[in-house]
Amino acid sequence: MVRSLGMALNAGGLPLCLWPVRKETSILESSARGPMAMMLREKFDYYATEFDPARIAAGTDPREYADFQNLHYKDDTFDVVIASDVFEHVRDDVAGYREVYRVLKMDGCFLLTVPYEHSREETIRRVDTTGAVDVHLLEPEYHGGGGHTLTYRNYGRDLLRLLRECGFAVGCTVIELAGLGITQQRVFLGRKGDFVEYFDQPSLPERSASTGPLFPFRAFLFYKYNFLSFLHYMREIRRR
To answer: pTM, whole model, 2 decimals?
Structure first.
C-alpha cells in the first residue's frame, strides 16, 4: 500500500520516512494501524478514522471517527482516500464507494485492498443486507483484531465494474517484494478523473543480510514508530 501511495503522490520511489512534509495534501484513511499512520500524520493533513457509531452520532473527534457509508466531510475534501482491508466489512459497500468518490477532490486517488480472487467472476455475498437485519447466507467469517469484524463479502472481478459505476477510473497493480518480506498483494486504484496514470517503479533490490551503516537510523525509526505506537495504543485502551 505504501508503494501505491507513493505512486499517487509522486514520491519518486523514496521510502515513506524520507517523503517531504506536505501539509497541504489531505489524506483520509479508515482503520489505520501502526507506524505507517504515525508517519503519515507527521507529513500530511491526515485523518485516521475508526468506525464507532456512538462517537460518530455524538460528533466526537470528526477527524478520528467516521462512517464510510455516510461520511460527514464536505465534497472535494481529500487528495487521497485509503481503505486497506476495510470494505469487505462495510455493510453497504456501494454507498461507501460513492461517498469516497464524493469527498475526493478532482483527480484525487482512492487506494483500496480487499480479499479478492481474480479468477472469480462474481463477488460472493456472505450476508444478505437487503433488510434491516443481517441474514447470513454462509457460515459467518470474521477478521480484524481479535476476529470480531464481520465479513460481508469476498470480492471477484465485478468489483472493477462496481467501482466504474460509482464514477471512478479504475486501475489495478500487483505488488510483490519478496526481499522485503512483502507477499503478493493486489491494490486497486480509483481515480476521480478520466484515467489512471500509472508509472511502475523499478523493483527494489533484495534485502541485504547486513544493515551496514544504516543500523542507527533504522534502530531510531523502529523505536519511534513501533514502541511509540504501542504506547499510543495503550493510552487508547485506558481511555476507553
So the answer is: 0.82
